[in-house]
Amino acid sequence: MPIFTHNAEHQASQKEIWDWYNSPGAFRRIMPEWEGIRPINAGALRDGEETIFKVSLGPIKQKWIARHHSVVEGESFADRMMKGPFGAWNHQHKFIPGKDGVTTVSDNVEYKLPLHIFTGWSAGLTVLPRMRQMFHFRSTRVTKDLLRIQATSDKPRQKVLVSGSTGMIGLQLCAFLEAAGHDVYRLMRKTTKLPPDVNSSNVIRWDDLSGKILEGDMNGFDTVIHLAGAGIGDKRWSKKRKKLIRDSRVIPTQNLSKVLASLDKPPKALLCASAVGFYGNRGDEVLDEQSSRGDDFLSDICSEWENASQGAKDAGIKVVHLRTGIVVSPLGGALAKLLLPAKMGGGGPIGGGRQMQSWISLDDQIYAIHHLMMTDSSEGPYNLTAPNPVSQKQFAKVLGKVLRRPAFMPLPGFVMRIMFGEMGKKLVLEGQDARPNRLLDSGFEFTYTDIESCFRNCLGRVKLN
Predict the structure, then answer these.
(1) pLDDT tens, position by position, 181-192
(2) What 3-state DSSP class applies to 332?
(3) By CB atoms within 10 Å of each CB, which of 125, 175, 228, 289 scores lowest?
(4) How far is CA 233 from CA 59, 324, 333, 423, in A?
């Protein structure tokens, strides 16, 4: 059978890498963002355990079942495709220790395409480029995760409670925290469905609109990370939708703060989501955490949202406000909505394209939250945005370049207002130039500081030798 080989060196011990791969969150962390893979079961690294997921083949979703075998604890394992899109697939992973604390992860994949005798010739055009991007992404993600874990290795692991754990950010945050060795629990509403690959025993259920705990106990957590809230850009803003956007943030945050303040063993810290919408539409004015709030709908919500955690602060719980910008990932948010028209050559400046967009990669969003969680002195508002915001025109131009599509077709602002109403105006035609001054001052180092490298990584368009 044909063999695909990939080797990557990591500045980490064999044990550190094994522990990362054997963590409950590793499978979600290692899957490329652009593939749209949906995990169903993440098997532990033991013989006979199965990892099951759905993968996209064009418009078709197909189940892939991989069974682990030939496991040598701490050194190597293999997985064989029992069901899936290939004619055959057997993947061997080896963790080879070297000099000066360097470990090489060696991947060898034996594979056959369906009807390989007729289709095998096409692998160089269809399969191998995709595999090269996938394994580059995996090795980069492992390297970056391990660096962040090593940076806090001298600090105790925490027991962490996360709300909004089924959203784009929450899923990856929980996966990373698990890979980093933290004890992760999820705070969920009664009606929220748990992802099938998640440990169902580490769940606390509550009524977020009343504050009543339905299942579990909130005592004894070190940190609570509160991310829940209805999607701002999911639907056109009606009066009912705007009320839901406000109430799904302010009321649960007030209730959570009251519950935490009343506990016998309250957490040391509450990290609460917010947004750069706090500053309102400010043109090209450079903003930092000391800048004043704006005076529109989103500013009002963000201000109320942050003030809603006052009860926790009054009880002596440290409160951090995560003022997040545009989180760049094809898994959701703005980029997911832009990809199809951009791939069809329909990208370009919207409403003139001069409005500033403060963005952050999904990886840096996760790493920044973890950094603030592990930094004792962190408190108050932090802008979670990359140091180099771009105009909407630049954003579209670079996206077109990465996708190799034209990005000059303009879309007048009045069209956005007709199509999306107030939501289109506030989220697309207006913007902020928010800088992460406090985050940088705290010692955080960004993985992606320019939008092109961010796009290339999350879309599988890295230029490989």
Answers:
(1) 999 999 999 999
(2) strand
(3) 125
(4) 25, 14, 8, 7
C-alpha pair distances (Å), 27 with each of 23, 34, 37, 378 = 8, 15, 10, 30
Query: What is the C-alpha to C-alpha distance for residues 332 and 324, in angstroms, rounded to an integer?
Result: 15
Q: Which tokens in the block code for residue 314?
A: 């009054």
Q: Do the beta carbons of residue 6 and residue 107 sit within 8 Å?
A: yes
Residue 257 has pLDDT above 90, yes or no: yes
Domains of the chain, each with CATH number or no CATH: 3-124 (3.30.530.20), 159-459 (3.40.50.720)
Q: Which helix (H) or strand (E) is 239 found in, with range?
A: helix 239-262
Residues whose CB is less than 8 angstroms from the CB of residue 93 and which lie 6 or more positions away in sequence, other chains included: 21, 76, 77, 78, 105, 106, 107
Cα separations in angstroms, 387 against 216, 357, 441, 465: 40, 11, 12, 28
- Residue 256 and residue 212 in contact, taking contact as beta carbons nearer than 8 Å: no
pLDDT digits (tens, 9 = 90+) for 263-279: 999 999 999 999 999 99
Question: How far apart, in whole angstroms, are the C-alpha atoms of residue 21 and residue 105?
Answer: 11
pLDDT at 429: 81
**What separation in angstroms does the CA of 319 have from each of 169, 226, 240?**
19, 11, 30
> SS3 of 455, please?
helix
Helix ranges restricted to H, 22-155: 26-30, 116-119, 123-126, 128-151
Surface-to-core class of residue 123, CB atoms within 10 Å of its CB (0-12 exposed, 13-18 middle, 19+ buried): middle
List the one residue out of 265, 227, 182 whose CA is nearest residue 384: 227
d(CA 315, CA 405): 54
Measured CA to CA in angstroms, residue 462 lies from 3, 113, 223, 265 at distances of 22, 25, 36, 47
Give kind and range of the element (H or E) at residue 311: helix 310-314
Is the pTM higher than 0.90? Answer: yes
